[in-house]
Write a structure and sequence with these properties.
The protein is of the alpha/beta class and 328 residues long. The chain folds into two domains: 156 residues, Rossmann fold, CATH 3.40.50; 144 residues, Rossmann fold (3-Layer(aba) Sandwich), CATH 3.40.50. 40% of the residues lie in helices and 20% in strands.
């Protein structure tokens, strides 16, 4: 008998919590673009007047959602992440965000979660693209506890929202902990002054924790921050955390161009905060490699060993440069 613990995906945890809300609030509507899930079957069965499938027609998905939201409905849409964002960007921009409608776009498959499907299913541009939209609130949960907390947070909000769910069952980070998810970010480890703070989002939070452990073993004090609300970023709390670190690393399974790291650097620049910063993510390329997510990570430097080595080398280089600057 296998001793492997079953881990429910964050999407299914979210849907399970959402079911209780739909049971109480008949004003809620769920629309899917031909994407299912075991936890959605009960929605179709128990809420036939609140559940719709528009087929493989994501632009129609958003258009229909906006029409219902105009009539006072609280609408949840669901599709694979690149299809509910980039494929219907114009509808998200003008129909949803410009009208500031209470729609929650649920995207499954953040980063390289659909690893063997190629660029059509990879979701490594969505942060860059969606964070440009006024009124939109965007989340990237890293575990099921965060995903469950987002059920209530997104239900209470009247803004247009987007959640980028991972596809895999990921170990829980916050089970049983008293976390204020409304803050939008959590310092997972490393209170106090640190040599380096690693800010990560989504599945990369888990890699960041392993990297921090490796760095600690090499005498480098490292902390990890989970940035799960990607827009708007809690600037006050972020700047407070940055004060306690000598250097900063941003880590994302996403293109570097305009991603989470760029968003953080914009905040630091706007507040004239000077701190040594290294961005780690996907460089400027499409990924056509197969073999699984970890194969992609290893090839492009997003696995734990590569990240650890990159940060260690960078810190040593910075220390030598600073030592030389003092001598000069």
């Amino acid at each position: 008998m296998s001793s492997t613990k079953f881990i429910m995906g964050m999407r299914d945890v979210f849907f399970t919590g959402l079911y209780d809300i739909f049971k109480k609030d008949k004003n809620c509507v769920f629309i899917t673009a031909d994407n299912g899930a075991p936890t959605l079957d009960q929605f179709a069965q128990d809420f036939p007047k609140q559940y719709y499938n528009v087929g493989i027609a994501e632009q129609q998905l958003i258009g229909m959602a906006c029409g219902m939201a105009f009539e006072g409905k609280k609408v949840y849409t669901y599709a694979i992440a690149p299809f509910v964002t980039i494929r219907c960007y114009d509808q998200n921009k003008l129909d949803m965000c410009a009208m500031n409608l209470p729609i929650v776009n649920l995207g499954i498959g953040a980063g390289y979660a659909y690893d063997i499907m190629g660029p059509s299913h990879h979701t490594v541009e969505d942060i860059s693209v969606m964070r440009t939209l006024p009124n939109l609130v965007m989340y990237g949960p890293a575990d099921v506890t965060t995903a469950r907390a987002l059920v209530d947070i997104t239900y209470q909000s009247r803004s247009p929202q987007y959640i980028r769910f991972d596809r895999a069952g990921i170990p829980d980070l916050y089970e049983g902990q008293d976390v204020h998810f409304e803050d939008g970010l959590v310092q997972v480890t490393g209170d106090g002054v640190n040599d380096v703070t690693i800010i990560a989002t989504g599945i990369m939070v888990h890699n960041a924790l392993k990297v921090a452990k490796n760095l600690q073993q090499n005498g480098i004090r490292a902390s990890v921050v989970d940035l799960f609300r990607l827009k708007p970023i809690n600037q006050e709390l972020l700047l407070e955390i940055v004060k306690n670190s000598r250097s900063l690393v941003t880590l994302e399974e996403h293109l570097l161009a305009g991603g989470m790291g760029s968003a953080i650097l914009e905040i630091l620049s706007d507040h004239d905060v000077k701190i040594l910063t290294l961005r780690i993510g996907q460089d400027d390329r499409f990924v056509f490699d197969y073999g699984g997510r970890e194969v992609i990570w290893e090839k492009y430097g997003l696995d734990v060993l590569s990240i650890t080595k990159k940060i260690s080398t960078w810190l040593k280089t910075q220390a030598k440069d600073q030592e030389l600057a003092v001598k000069l």
